[in-house]
Amino acid sequence: MTDSPVTIISVTSQYATQVAQDLELNTKEQERISAELSALQAQLRILQDDQNVLHSIQKTLGGRPLAAPTTSKPLPQQASGKNTTARPAPSKTAAKAPNAKKTTAQAKKAKAQGAKPKAATTSAQPTLIALIRTHLDQQKEPRSAAEVTSALVQAHPQRTIKSTVVRTTLENLVAKSQAHRSKQGASVLYTSVAVQAATEKAAAPVI
């Protein structure tokens, strides 16, 4: 005996309902994983930018000690030239060698004296951390790293301000509890601690 058509239709409808539910769950799970993946990719981009900034800072710090020996490079060439051309008269070469040392010493002193005014002018400028903290204190709403960078570039066109350095500085302020970080979707926003405290106080219910 074969199954009745009614029984076949009911079983088919049950399978169809189950498949539809499974498809809906599958779609929701894909959406959840896609949202988490986009958030992780955004965090990865931030970490990669910070890594590039740290690498550039490391290269800069590592390159400073290598700049000093460049002033002493002409000395071996002068010494070799004098030894080959004036071997019959060692007294003359002995008299010329101290003069070369004196000229290099005087050049180093002149460079050191010329660098002092530059150091004084650079030290008179506010640091990037001070500029960022002042800007956040003046804002009533959270700002992204790109917005902070754009505002600082407009306010200080004479300075070279990069968004990666601003983002790293903002994260350091957050780590030191000197700034507040929040998220709106995939965007990361920063607020001054004083502004955040005032906002929370104003939003608190009055008892």
What do these coordinates show?
- The chain has 207 residues and is mainly alpha-helical.
- The protein has a domain at 128-203: Winged helix-like DNA-binding domain superfamily/Winged helix DNA-binding domain (Arc Repressor Mutant, subunit A), CATH 1.10.10.10.
- It is built from 7 helices and 3 strands.
- It has a 3-stranded antiparallel sheet.
- The protein starts with a helix and ends with a helix.
- Mean pLDDT is 76; it is low at 65-72 and 75-86.
What key attributes describe this structure?
Arc Repressor Mutant, subunit A; 3-stranded antiparallel sheet; 7 helices
Report a brief summary of the structure.
This protein is mainly alpha-helical and 207 residues long. The chain has helices spanning 5-63, 74-85, 90-124, 128-138, 145-155, 163-175, 193-203; strands at 143-144, 179-184, 187-192. The chain contains seven helices and three strands.
Layout: helices, strands, pairs:
Elements: H1 5-63, H2 74-85, H3 90-124, H4 128-138, E1 143-144, H5 145-155, H6 163-175, E2 179-184, E3 187-192, H7 193-203
Helix pairs in contact: 1-6, 2-3, 5-6
Oligomer: single chain
CATH architecture of the domain at 128-203: Orthogonal Bundle
The percentage helix is over 70%
**CATH first level of the domain at 128-203: which class?**
Mainly Alpha
CATH homologous superfamily designation of the domain at 128-203: Winged helix-like DNA-binding domain superfamily/Winged helix DNA-binding domain
Distance between the termini: 77 Å
Instruction: Round the Cα radius of gyration to an integer and report it.
Output: 34 Å
Strand order of the largest sheet: 1-3-2
**Which whole number gives the mean pLDDT?**
76
Uncertain runs: 65-72, 75-86
What structural class do helix, strand and pairing data support?
mainly alpha
Would you list the SSEs in sequence order as H and E?
HHHHEHHEEH
Strand content: 5-15%
Give the biggest beta sheet.
3 strands, antiparallel
Q: What is the name of the CATH topology of the domain at 128-203?
A: Arc Repressor Mutant, subunit A
